[in-house]
Amino acid sequence: MSAQATSETSFFLRHEFLIRRVHSLLGIVPLGLYMTVHLATNASLLNGTETFQRAVFLIHSPGKLLPLIEWGAIFLPLIFHAVIGVWIARSGRSNSSQYQFRSNRRYTWQRWTGFIALVYLFFHILHLHGWFHVPAWQELIRPLGFGVFRPFNAASSLVEAMQEWGYIWPAFYLIGVLACVYHLANGLWTSGITWGLWISPTAQARASKLCTAIGCGLAILGVSAWWAAVSPGPQATVKMEQTEDRMYEAAVESGMVTPNPEKRRDDETGQPAEVAAND
């Protein structure tokens, strides 16, 4: 083992108590909370284009502050949680001596769903958002079917993104969402042990039932969000775009959102309206 690797390992071991608690806390707040809100927002598409687009407008209403909010409350906590999660999984230190109920199986599933969730989020962000909002990069990945989501045409662009590549994306998203749900629900249980909230076998058994109920509720919400995106037919996007265009004009007029062609799509090309206008 190299000196650098030894130094890094020593750093983690010296601060393991604090690192594990920050890791578990970030997995719940803000990441778990954000996932719940995100799934609920996507599931709102079941109620119609208007409901979904109104929710997306509200999310994007901070305007230029939105990237700061995204990096501060989502991306940086996610990177920290993922890096520490990989380190914990690689360290291979089982907590079976503390967990009295199906400990080995839950530990294994927690680790594997964490890896699945990491891969899922990696491609989910690439597929819909393209990772980086840099014009040259976006122009490179769009022909490959990535970076296709347009917040101001939220329903139509989401549905069309899910229809590409046949059943590959729907299957990928279903597996990824359920992996995230299990990882969060079981993570709530393990976090309670980490923070000393339930230590005795009786308390752990009660917490297990509570976290199972939360997991089932999130699974229903996640499948609802998934179905809302994959169920509309190819012709549904035409009416969706008409509704989105009408709502966009009203939102701009009311000051709810700032005009931004990059967040809209051209009716014919599917590219951002600003890019299509310059072609």
**Individual helix count:** 12
- Strand-residue proportion: under 5%
Biggest sheet, in brief? none
Give the overall silhouette. Answer: globular
Poorly predicted runs? 95-101, 275-279
Name of the level-1 CATH class: Mainly Alpha
Do you know the CATH topology? 3 helical TM bundles of succinate and fumarate reductases
Secondary-structure topology with pairs:
Elements: H1 3-14, H2 16-28, H3 31-43, H4 49-60, H5 66-91, H6 103-128, H7 135-141, H8 154-163, H9 168-194, H10 201-230, H11 236-254, H12 273-278
Describe what this molecule looks like in 3D.
The chain has a single domain, classed as Fumarate reductase/succinate dehydrogenase, transmembrane subunit (3 helical TM bundles of succinate and fumarate reductases), CATH 1.20.1300. The chain is 72% helix and 0% strand. It is built from 12 helices and no strands. It has helices spanning 3-14, 16-28, 31-43, 49-60, 66-91, 103-128, 135-141, 154-163, 168-194, 201-230, 236-254, 273-278. Helix 6 packs across helix 9. The longest helix has 30 residues, at 201-230. Mean pLDDT is 89; it is low at 95-101 and 275-279.
Q: What is this entry, summarized?
A:
The chain contains twelve helices and no strands. The protein has 279 residues and is mainly alpha-helical. The longest helix is centred in the last third of the chain and has 30 residues, at 201-230.
